[in-house]
Amino acid sequence: MPNLTDAATAMPQSLTITSTVRLLSGHSMPRLGLGVYQTPANTCQSIVAFALRTGYRHIDSATAYRNERPCTLAISASSLSRSELFFTTKLPPRTRGYASTAASIDGVIAENAELEGYIDLYLIHAPYGTPEDRIGQWRAMVEAQKEGKIRSLGVSNYGVQHLDELKAWREKQSEQDRGVLSVGQWELHPWLDRTDIVDWCAREGVAVQAYSPVVRATRMDDPLLMGLAEKHGKTSAQVLIRWSLQMGWTPLPKSVHEERIRENADVFDFELTDEEVKTLQTGKYEPVAWDPTKEPI
Ligand SMILES: NC(=O)c1ccc[n+]([C@@H]2O[C@H](COP(=O)([O-])OP(=O)(O)OC[C@H]3O[C@@H](n4cnc5c(N)ncnc54)[C@H](OP(=O)(O)O)[C@@H]3O)[C@@H](O)[C@H]2O)c1
Question: Would the pTM of this model clear 0.90, i.e. be above it?
């Protein structure tokens, strides 16, 4: 059974829907996000608008999801100011190297005036390609950040080998050119142990986002979850999201249903004990999404 990470044990217990984590970039990231993978573009605006009314302040999109536009329209149509909202998007997995990455970032900014000129968090979606491709992507992101187009930089689906590669490159650059790795995003839930990656992030001060936090609804009837749900008067989804928060991560549950969007945010009035948090660390490695962390460098 893996040990709790420092981030998890250090977590303050008084979390609310407005809680944020301070990133190495100096910006703050809301601790709960709404995922929009496979949220259809034609309903996405009203779904995001509902989430914002419910209290979500963080939306996780990607250029590959083809729904950045309805997300940003919902942001601008809301009564909230741009600075109260946190919008993430990601470099398409097949976009390689410096020039294509710079063009992708510029495309997002140009097509989404509602962002008011900046993306809160930009992630490399997956570590495909050569070392030169990945470093080129990172260099373009660092440049875009210097130009004010991105606030915080991150990676997704990087294995420790890709994280080490980026770290080694960054250490050889001047402070001005190396950029800051603020966030990493991975599939993380009780049946997917990524202690190596999570520990790497804890050592480097990188904030961890958890995708597929409700395991794509494949484990809702698990006896372990159902027992905890009954004890706390909550649903299995709420136990999973609360567990993710108590692990010190930023969960990004996705739903297209209003009642589930509300349910997934109603996780701030109960707390799992340390023992319960440990019980859900099964040590298993059973992804429900893709797993580019295994890509060789
Ligand atoms: N970086 C990456 O490579 C990557 C990969 C995958 C996901 N992500 C991000 O992470 C987000 C979440 O991950 P995910 O979509 O894979 O999985 P997830 O959030 O674990 O699960 C979403 C699925 O669970 C259902 N669901 C949600 N809440 C529920 C509840 N309270 N009760 C019952 N069913 C519920 C949803 O159905 P309905 O929608 O029908 O309610 C949907 O089928 C994505 O939307 C995306 O933003 C990133």
Answer: yes
